[in-house]
Design goal:
With 332 residues, the chain is an alpha/beta fold. It contains 10 helices and 9 strands.
Length: 332
């Protein structure tokens, strides 16, 4: 059994020595499976690539993929998945905030429960209260508007089978989250929990702009909620405009106490903006469907097919066929 470990790296020269040392120590003790480590250099501008090349890699086979420029961690993970040869594939990171012991735990869970995907959900993190708040808010929005089974405390590590790799390789999406794509595939899944550790060396490259981009990518790629919000605002403004128009007309008829000009202008603006937003929402719906079609995501994904095969060779007469002679065969 071969396990591929994809490690994206970007300006992590401080962590490479410790990372390789920990990998050597870990895989020297792990005898249940052989291992392949795929380092994906995401356009590092420091000595990260040189340090990986110069390091002594023992007790595991390795491969180095180097990008021409910085494309982002999700692009790096996709490249690693595409080149992976393992029966199971997982992710690790140079800062080792996610312990290497997760690889064995995920492997055991997949082998024991015979599922295609196993997630490592964060039980606790060393993040600040502000980061935890935004992370919780992001998870809540994703569960409500995009992926119902999105975990409450997020995730950074997953292990999956070759079946999932085939699906991902056929649908290489740009400006999208590989984690949410895996989560949305379906298939039989399970999970474990772990405590995320504090970073020892270097500075996190997971900056605020990257977090905002992930938020936008997640909703644009996996949810139509922003488009529906435009339509909802349009309908709301239109209804309020109609009610306001009725109000000022009645006030004019019965009381005639409104200043001329601004009430009618407000009425026109509300109705006008409402109609405009409704029109934009309709146009956006068509654009969304065009975008969805251009991604060429599969309409459905088949996990397995059970086909009834009758053993006719040993039967002298088809009329004598009995139900207990039928065979269910799995078509892969």
């Amino acid at each position: 059994m071969l396990v591929s470990v994809v490690i994206p790296v970007y300006n992590e020269k401080e962590n490479i020595e410790n990372l390789v040392q920990q990998l050597n120590q870990y895989f020297e003790k792990e005898k249940r499976f052989s291992s392949e480590v795929i380092f994906v250099n995401d356009g590092s501008t420091d000595e990260t690539l040189e340090k990986i090349k110069e390091s002594k890699h023992q007790h595991y086979t390795y491969k180095i993929i180097s990008f021409s420029r910085n494309f982002g961690s999700h692009a790096a993970l996709r490249a690693g998945i595409f080149e992976a040869k393992g029966d199971y594939i997982t992710f690790m990171y140079a800062d080792l905030q996610d312990p290497l012991s997760l690889i064995s735990r995920l492997y055991e869970e997949l082998e024991c429960k015979k599922v295609e995907i196993c997630w490592a959900f964060r039980n606790s993190t060393m993040a600040s209260k502000t980061e935890k708040f935004f992370s919780s808010a992001y998870a809540s929005l994703m569960r409500k508007y995009a992926v119902p089974n999105f975990p409450k405390k997020g995730f950074d590590v997953v292990m999956f089978s070759q079946k999932i790799k085939v699906c991902l390789d056929k649908n290489l999406e740009n400006n999208s989250s590989v984690f949410i794509q895996i989560l949305s595939l379906g298939f039989k899944q399970t999970n474990i929990f772990y405590d995320k550790q504090d970073r020892i060396l270097g500075k996190s490259k997971w900056t605020l702009p990257k977090k905002i981009k992930l938020l936008i990518d997640s909703f644009v790629a996996f949810s139509f909620a922003p488009i529906r919000l435009v339509s909802f605002i349009g309908v709301l403004l239109f209804l309020l405009g109609i009610l306001w128009s009725g109000y000022i007309i009645l006030r004019k008829i019965f009381f005639d106490d409104l200043t001329s000009g601004w009430p009618a202008l407000v009425s026109i603006l509300m109705v006008g903006f409402g109609i405009t937003n409704i029109s934009l929402g309709i146009i956006a719906e068509y654009l969304w469907r065009t975008l969805d079609a251009s991604r060429q995501r599969p309409v459905f994904i088949i996990d397995e097919i059970l086909e009834e095969v009758q053993d006719l060779q040993n039967l002298p007469n088809l009329q004598e066929l009995k139900p207990d002679r039928d065979i269910l065969t799995k078509v892969k």
